[in-house]
Amino acid sequence: MSARDDRKGQKIAGVAAGVRGHNADVTVNALTVRPLARDDLPRLSRWLAEPHVAQWWRDPSDLPSVEASYLPCIDGTDPAEVFVIEVAARAAGLIERYLVADDPEWHHAMRATGAVTGCAAGIDYLIGEPGLTGRGYGTAAISLFSALTFRRYPQADAIVAAPQQANAGSWRALQRAGYQRWWSGWLESSDPSDAGPAYLYGMRRPPSPERRATR
Ligand SMILES: CC(C)(COP(=O)(O)OP(=O)(O)OC[C@H]1O[C@@H](n2cnc3c(N)ncnc32)[C@H](O)[C@@H]1OP(=O)(O)O)[C@@H](O)C(=O)NCCC(=O)NCCS
Fold first, then answer.
1. Number of Cβ atoms within 10 Å of the Cβ of 210
2. 155 secondary structure, DSSP code
3. Which member of 52, 99, 168, 170 has the lowest number of beta carbons within 10 Å of its beta carbon?
4. Measuring from atom 34 of ligand 1, which residue has the nearest CA?
5. Which CATH superfamily is domain 3-213 in?
6. Do residues 198 and 112 lie in contact, with contact meaning Cβ atoms separated by under 8 Å?
7. What is the pLDDT of residues 20-40, one digit of tens each?
């Protein structure tokens, strides 16, 4: 799977609600991801200002700050790759991925836990529309995106995320998507979003079909 393939948008069947009866082959509420575009930034600014997001994702939400943070990702000068989560073609949230080693401070924080040793990718996510939280979309997006992230970074043997312990919605969504708790404690990070006790959740790369066959 290349980034170009990702740009076409990826659909997850698991979250699609099947309609019974004569419309049995119709699916609704399909969840997809597509690359963040410049036109999305005002919406992202609004999402970051939503109280349920601002409580945990402590980046400035004013548009100039959002542009300063995300335009480099859109034009490719920042290696982090950022996507919009869409539910039934409606923008619902944001999910991003990166190689931990690309961010020296985060790389240090992850190594300092002792739980991350090889090459790891990281993900961050939010469901920005308040009315779309608590419906399983965060879990579904993490699940879909984790599979895509392993394909995007063949050198990564794990994916990690480090929610605050008090952010139960985040770490429950990780658990439901198949992540395991690898560590808990205080991260060596100056990012305000990492303040307070955190959990480190990780998912190891699933064995490839070839490797499974030789066992
Ligand atoms: C975290 C977030 C992405 C989860 O997505 P979601 O679609 O709301 O969550 P889901 O519906 O998939 O639910 C996942 C689990 O979290 C629980 N949950 C959801 N919101 C919760 C909340 N506010 N408090 C406690 N638990 C919550 C759900 O009950 C479910 O757990 P269960 O299996 O025990 O029932 C979303 O709530 C969000 O964007 N929060 C603000 C931004 C954020 O915290 N990002 C992560 C930073 S590390």
1. 7
2. T
3. 168
4. 172
5. Gcn5-related N-acetyltransferase (GNAT) (3.40.630.30)
6. no
7. 445 444 445 699 999 999 999
Sequence spans of domains, the chain = 3-213
E strands, 36-89, are 81-87
User: Which residue out of 82, 85, 133 has the highest number of ligand 1 atoms within 8 Å of its CB and is therefore the one to mutate?
Assistant: 133
Residue 56 Cβ < 6 Å to ligand 1? yes
Yes or no: say if 53 and 125 are a contact pair by the CB < 8 Å rule: no
Q: What is the per-residue pLDDT across 36-86, written as a single tens digit (0 to 9) for each?
A: 999 999 999 999 999 999 999 999 999 999 999 999 999 999 999 999 999
Report percent pLDDT > 90 for the chain: 79
Determine whether the shortest distance from the Cβ of 134 to ligand 1 is under 6 A.
yes
Is 110 a pocket residue for ligand 1 (Cβ < 6 Å)?
A: no
134-151 residue pLDDT tens: 999 999 999 999 999 999
The tokens of 146 are what? 């984790």
